[in-house]
Amino acid sequence: MDQPTETRILKPWQYILWEPKSCCCCSLSTASLTVAITWLVVGSIAVPMWLYFAVVSSVMDLYGAEIFIMITCIILLLVSICWLVVASLYVHGVRKTRYKLLLPMVIWQAIHMAIICFLFVSFTFISLFNNDIKFFLVMLFTYILLVSWDFCIFSVLRTNYLQLRQVTSSASVSD
């Protein structure tokens, strides 16, 4: 007789995605640590830059500059601060083998991919509305490159998180 099979609903982090074994001849831990440190360096440069531009554009706004520039600078400042925080947590989590500290960067990388998708859709509508096919093709090419790169980074970060979680949870069970 056939046994009824039980269907199980998967949680979002249980979906089977591409899980790399290594990245650029490095272990996943080294590669993800390199990505996090790169984001720390970029964020450390970007935060003062966007803060400066936000202050300058707010001062210039008194003299009639566009408010759009000031809002853009403030948003980019907040995004850079978020990158600094999650990258710091990630570096600390990898060094101390605490998998819970890795999750914010994995989530933030997924949010980053969603932001890129939203920007692509926005720019696509603008370029198609203006009948600018060249701009659309450049945006499409850029979008494909960015999403491919972001997906690879997301996969490395996620796989490292899952491996560290598995190692940590199996070590705590055996203790």
Helix and strand arrangement:
Elements: H1 28-61, H2 67-96, H3 103-129, H4 133-174
Alpha plus pi helix count: 4
How far do the termini sit from each other? 43 Å
Q: Averaged pLDDT, please?
A: 78
Number of domains: 1
The helix content is over 70%
Q: What integer value in Å does the Rg equal?
A: 21 Å
Shape: globular
**What is the string of helix and strand elements?**
HHHH
User: Quick one: biggest sheet?
Assistant: none
Beta-strand percentage? under 5%
The counted number of beta strands is 0
Structural class: mainly alpha
Low-pLDDT sequence parts: none
Q: Could you please describe the fold and organization of this structure?
A:
- The model has no long low-confidence stretch (mean pLDDT 78).
- The protein has one domain.
- The chain has 4 helices and no strands.
- Helices cover 76% and strands 0% of the residues.
- Helix 1 runs antiparallel to helix 2 (67-96), helix 1 (28-61) packs across helix 4 and helix 2 packs antiparallel against helix 3.
- It is an all-alpha fold and 175 residues long.
